[in-house]
Each structure stands twice: as C-alpha cells, then as structure tokens.
Amino acid sequence: MTLREHNLRVYNTLTRRLEKFEPLAPPHVGLYVCGPTVYGDAHIGHAKSYIAFDCIVRYLRYLGYDVTYVQNITDVGHLTDDADAGEDKVEKAARAKRVHPMAIAEMYTRRYFEDMDRLNVLRPDISPRASGHIVEQIEHVRRLLETGHAYEVGGNVYFDVSSFPQYGRLSGRNVGEMQAGARVEVNAEKRHPADFALWKRAEPGHIMQWPSPWGPGYPGWHLECSVMSQKYLGETFDIHGGGMENQFPHHEDEIAQAEAASGKPFVKYWLHNNMVTVGGQKMGKSLGNFITLEEAIGTQEKPGRWDPMVLRLFILQTHYRSQTDFSEEALEAAKEGYERLSRSYTALQRALHGATEGPVAPAWGEIFESMKPRVFEAMDDDFNTPLALATLFEYAREGNRMLASESPSYQTIQLFFSAFMDLGGYILGLDFAGEKTGLKGVLEIAGARDVEGVTSALVRGLVDLRADARKAKDFAQADAIRDRLAEAGIALEDGPDGTTWRFK
Ligand SMILES: [Zn+2]
Description:
4-stranded antiparallel β-sheet; 16 helices; 4-stranded parallel β-sheet; binds zinc ion; globular
C-alpha cells in the first residue's frame, strides 16, 4: 500500500519540539509502549494511555504505514518503591490472595485484554512477558558489566550512571542535582544515588527468581523494556510511548541501558501521554481515587456505569498530552455526544439501504470536499483527537442535513457515510453498534422499524420449521426447536388448527 499524503508532526519529549514524522525505514514503523504491571484491575488512567496510543497506531496504519506494535506485560520486577526498594508488586498481590504470583499475573493479564477489547483498543502485534525474557535480560546485564557500565555488589548488579554522560537528557535532570536532592533512598551498595538495579538478588522466600551468574535473583523493572523492545524492533526504532510519569526514572533508565550496550541511539521519537485527574489530583492507586474499568464499563457478563464507547469518546475529547479531568458531568456529556453520533450513524446506514443510485449532488459534493482535509489537519497535528472529534460531529451534522434534503442518491449518502466511518470507526476507533446485543438490538441496528412484527415473523418461521420436522418424523429436531424457543421465553401450544405461540 502506498502512503497517503500527510504532514504528520509529533511532539518529541527528547527534543521538546514538534517534529516532522520521518520513520527510519518507511513504510515500516516500530512502536513500543510500556504495558501494564499485572497485579490489579486497570482503571480509567490506564484506559487513557492505551486509547491514546491505539489512536496513534490506527492513524499511522490509516496513512499506510506498516506498524509493528509491541507492548510489554510486566509480570516480574516492578517494585512498590521506585528506588529499587520495596516488594515486587505481583508477589505482594499473590501473597494477599495466597496464590502463585504467576496466577495473579495470568488473571490480570486476561482482565487487561478483556477491558481493552471492550474499549475497542486493538491488540498489540507482540505482547512480550518480562518473565519470558530472563535469558535475554541476563545477557544484557552481562554486556553492560563487560563494557564497564555496571558493577556487582553481593548478588545485585547496578547501572553506573557516571559511565553514561547523557543520563538525564530525556527528563531534563542532571546527575549532580539528584545527589543534592536526596529524594532517592540511600542505598549503601550504590556508588551514586542515581545508580539503579539491573539485577536484584532474591531474598529468602522470594518466589519469582532465576539462576544467574550473580546468584539467584530477578531483573530490575527498567531492564525488560530495553531488552524486549530491542529484541523485536531492533537496536534503534521509531517511537517509544508511555505515561509522562514514567519519563523518570523508567524511560531515562531504558535509554541508558540500551545506548550504553549498543552504542547507538535507542529511540527516535519519545511520546508521552498525560494523566487522568479528579478535581485536579492524579487518579491513581496510591491516592485511592480511582475508578476501575470493571466499575466504569462493566464486563462481558454485567454492564458497568457507562457504555465502553462513552468512556472512549470522553478520553478522546482531550489531547493525549493534556490532563483529562474526570467528573460525572463530563461523562454524561460524553454520553449525549455518543448518542448523537450513534443516531447519525444509524440514520445514514438506514438511508443507504433505501437509496437509489445516482450522481453525487454537486452542492453536497462541494461541502464534503471542503471538510475532507480537516481530518488530516487534525490528526497530523500530533494526533489531535479533540479536533478530529469536532470534525466527526460536523460530518454527523452535515450528514443529517443532507438526509433531510430532497431524496439524496446512494452515492451522495455513501460519501458521507464512508467519511464518517473512516474517521469515527477506523481512526478514532468508535464502535457505533458494539453494545447492542440480542435480537432486539440486532433488529435496531438493521434499522427494523417494526421490531415486534419482525420478532413475530421469526418465531413463525421457527414454528413452521418445527412442523416440517414433525412431518418428517424428526422429533429430536422438533423438540430442540421448541426447547430453544422456551429458553428465549416463548411457549408453543399445539391445537387442532396448528401451533400458536405466546410470551411466557
Ligand atoms: Zn517500560
């Protein structure tokens, strides 16, 4: 596929500038995003991050780029304290529930994907697990030791930040200040307070541990991202994404580990999403002001407070680099917006079914052509989803006006419908039919005006099939049809004039 014409600019945290997007080897794009630590339920803050990068992937693919999207699953090594202290988060959750840490990791990994599926977030091409890449991580530590960028003390291996002068470039910190700042916990083993663990010695009772040249232990959290991103995307790749709060120390450490070992630049563009706040305060586990995705959008089995698409639309209303302030009112407004879009979607789709062929009406053709560049203008501007959404609402408005005009042709309606779906469905990832299930929902989507009448026709059809089965002496089939209808709440009564049906 050839690339569409575009003028995409992205804000690169590394240079603190908007830069023209020029991948290293077009049309290929390598993208890595820090994934979840799987020890608890995801909340709305996580949804923001992964929806943001989902739209980035979607737009790049829409432009014709061949994107390889890698997003890790952290199932080992992420400690409760950033300064290489505290407990492993997964092990701590496992102890509380008295199960093996891997069972915790497995359970929350599944839940994470279920939540993301419901939010219409495309799955990454590769979801590597940290625990599945221990060999590669040990090899990387060995290389850093050999090249003089790391040192070992009693089974712990630390990265020596003084060996990497560029340390602090991404987050704009300098190592000298860090020493004076003393916010980093004192650790007598470290030569410099900013040094960080590559490999941790396993204390007695630590379950997630592996043999290594430095004794039994486990990798530091930052290491997995350097190692797994480079394994699947190469030593230098195009985009690394993640939450702003991970710029330091996580991403800074990733750069140090990768570049010290390879001697090459690690990543061309660093993209960071901002957080979700509640009344100006960060939504997070530590503050206890978070809303889990289970509560917000429910599960397959039970509905949540909002349709998943309402939450998605709410998040897209803010630029990914701005803070999203959560409130009930804002979600209500998003709900109204989503319903408005859904009504336009349904109206356009219905009209398409009934329309007759004919040329595009010139007046509507002109309006359409004038709107088309706005999609690219919005998304080329560092993936400006609020602006893209505004354009989608405009498509909906103009689409409604067009439908109200004198019997528009199939081609005229199609023009608006496909633009609406390209932007709303493909790029922004909104699903306008997703939450409608069951016969009634399906009929509504299909635009059936007479839902009761169609239900009656369908039941009648099944009753006739049952009669045919009985005539052919296939009583098993006849009974199966009766039972299935009974499950759906419909009772059949056989009489001299045939079979009648009623709701039970
Ligand atoms: Zn990471």
